[in-house]
Amino acid sequence: MKLCTIGLGYIGLPTSAVFAKYGTDVVGIDIHQSVVDKLNRGEIHIEEPGLGEVVKEVVASGKFRASLDVEPADAFIIAVPTPNNDDENKSCDLTYVLDATRRVLPVVQKGNVIIVESTIAPRTMDDFVKPLVEEAGFVVGEDVYLVHCPERVLPGQILHELVHNNRIVGGITSTCAEKGAEIYRTFVEGEIIQTDAKTAEMSKLMENTFRDVNIALANELAKVCNALDINVLDVIEMANKHPRVNLHSPGPGVGGHCLAVDPYFIVAKQPELAKIIKLSRDTNVSMPDYVATHAQKLVEGIENPKIAAFGVTYKGNVDDMRESPAVEIIDLLIERGVNVEVHDPHVERSISDKFDLVSSEQALTGADLVLVLVDHNEFKQLNFNELTATMNTPRIFDTRNIVKEDTDSKVEVVNYGNLY
Ligand code: SAJ
Asked: Collapsing DSSP states into helix, strand and coil, what is residue 54?
């Protein structure tokens, strides 16, 4: 089988590499010449554990190559971004998905399978993608098989989850779903569940929405407990001893290109009905201001205070800064006139024009607060002696509850449990 993947980002690249590793001939398409060149040298442009080795191997074996131009193949996988539109309810911007479909159609032949893996608004396959394929003269389900197979892998564990997670394969017809399932059987060891396209679209969106709503509940609880002088972390620990309760962890906000984006796709389709989903988004969006305001309070009374912000990515042990609440918090503090120096061992260049990245030594020197914004492994064991020696005021505000207090040291650790 030959596969042509459109989009070589966080999903398209690992998916292409794994198909190639399992014997499929894969050509991956990207619009960036630099990405194509780098991949063809066997190097990668994103951070993901284990990915570098697999790409190197499949480029060397000739099973994978990258190109700017779409080529004929047996199957096509579209894995391009679906950002929010700039409208009131942040609806799903289908531009890249529809453009990719239009690019593929001129090389499509009878019997081919077209798969959209990008996360899309409910009914996108039926209402937007299918008509494009029909306009090109194909009968969907007879000439060409059209499928939505949403990606569900967790950044940081993509290679493992690609193989072991269950897959939902939503076909426009049941034959489409069967043809799609056949392709994923190449390497998927989890269950492959066949359904229709709109059920697959909504299931994917609800997975991320479920998590977003639960994190919003934890963040709301943190605010309520803080106002009532109750330790929220103890509350969560106690409540989670109940066999049917699983409170999530409060944090500095919800980032990444999934949870902070996808729930809006549902809200935009039914704004009058999707009320909890919208409110949860609002709660999570409010967290950066909450954290920035509390960080400012913690340095109140200090003349020209300096904050050392640790971490800019949307979560730990990744290099992805998309929708990162950490970036928003740092930008907010800088806009409010606070002196902030920023350190992140996983990132080379800041995406914000408001700050650059510095070494941890430089950030800590003369600082009055370490603001831990990301749960990178490197931040779990901060050197308390270094902190006491170099900081002006040895204090930490740990928004991720990862720093263990050292009672022998002079460093004060504040987290959501004792913020009140
Ligand atoms: N977060 C919290 N508290 C928590 C858990 C997470 O504040 O208790 C924050 C994280 O720090 C981060 C954000 O939420 O900012 C999202 O992180 P995540 O680890 O929950 O998820 P993502 O965005 O990395 O990946 C999600 C996954 N979806 C689910 O777990 C339901 C993944 O399986 C999907 O494939 C991915 O979205 C996607 O691409 O849609």
From this structure: helix
Residues with a catalytic annotation lie at 204, 258
In this structure, which CATH number among 3.40.720.10, 3.50.50.60, 3.40.50.720, 3.40.50.300 belongs to the domain 287-415? 3.40.50.720
Pocket test for ligand 1, best of 209, 220, 233, 254 (most atoms within 8 A of CB): 254
**Cβ within 8 Å of residue 149, ≥6 positions away:** 115, 116, 117, 167, 168, 169, 170, 180, 184, 200
Q: Is the pTM of this model over 0.90?
A: yes
CATH topology identical between 2-204 and 287-415: yes
Classify domain 2-204 by CATH architecture: 3-Layer(aba) Sandwich (3.40)
Beta sheet of 369-372, edge-to-edge order: 339-343, 306-310, 369-372, 395-398, 412-415
313-326: pLDDT as tens digits: 999 999 999 999 99
pLDDT at 71: 98
Do residues 179 and 113 touch, judged by C-beta distance below 8 A? Answer: yes
Parse the chain into domains and list their residue ranges.
Answer: 2-204, 287-415
For residue 25, the model assigns a pLDDT of: 98
- Mean pLDDT, residues 273-301: 98
- ipTM of this complex: 0.96
Ligand 1: centre distance to CA 346 (Å) = 18
CA 255 to ligand 1: nearest atom: 15
Q: Residues enclosing ligand 1, CB less than 6 A?
A: 119, 151-155, 207-208, 211, 215, 248-249, 251, 254-256, 258-259, 314-315
